[in-house]
């Protein structure tokens, strides 16, 4: 019986070419023993294997040289365009000069102009805020002045009614007292809004407000005495004063 016949499959080695190494990357560890066994190169005589690998090496060197030559041609062409003898050289110098000027201006803008502009804007905003506060304070001062003038007139009328029994009218006195109380409360609110202002005008208005309030309190004391002296005729007046005195005295 023959040991070898046509039914046996003999091992076939692969051709050594560039595709054989395509699956290997920089991250792949190349194992020589595995490479030889997987491709059946251990059946190939050593001199033949050496010859094929040497030929592939020369082929790769030539391919690399051809690729470098093609790339070098484009590189040389690009260098020629920007050489000292090229026609584009003056234009490049102009562009370089313009770029340098732009960078200088940009540096000045960043270091000086922007800082100055920011400072100016900040000062302007602060100035506008101050003007706004002054405008509000002026409006409050005008309102307070008008309120004090009205309080002064009301207080004069109330003082006249309280001073002479001939002119005393309980109903009228009660209405004047209520109105005087409302105006005094509004003036006090305006003064609280202006409490941080120490201008001569505000100091004068505070003094006037204190004077009018003191006179109004004196009138309330007189009216209380009249209510106690004649409670039957001053009952309505007493009720009105009772709503004012805890807030005014």
Overall radius of gyration: 54 Å
Please state the overall shape, judged from the principal axes of the Cα atoms: rod-shaped
Largest sheet: none
**Which fold name fills CATH's third level, the topology of the largest domain?**
Methane Monooxygenase Hydroxylase, Chain G, domain 1
Q: Which structural class should the secondary elements be placed in?
A: mainly alpha
Strand content: under 5%
Average per-residue pLDDT, rounded, comes to: 78
E-strand count: 0
Helix content: over 70%
The residue ranges in which pLDDT falls below 50 over 5 or more consecutive positions are none
The helix tally amounts to 6
The level-1 CATH class of the largest domain: Mainly Alpha
Total tally of structural domains: 2
CATH architecture of the largest domain: Up-down Bundle
Secondary-structure element pattern, one letter each: HHHHHH
Terminal-residue CA separation: 140 Å
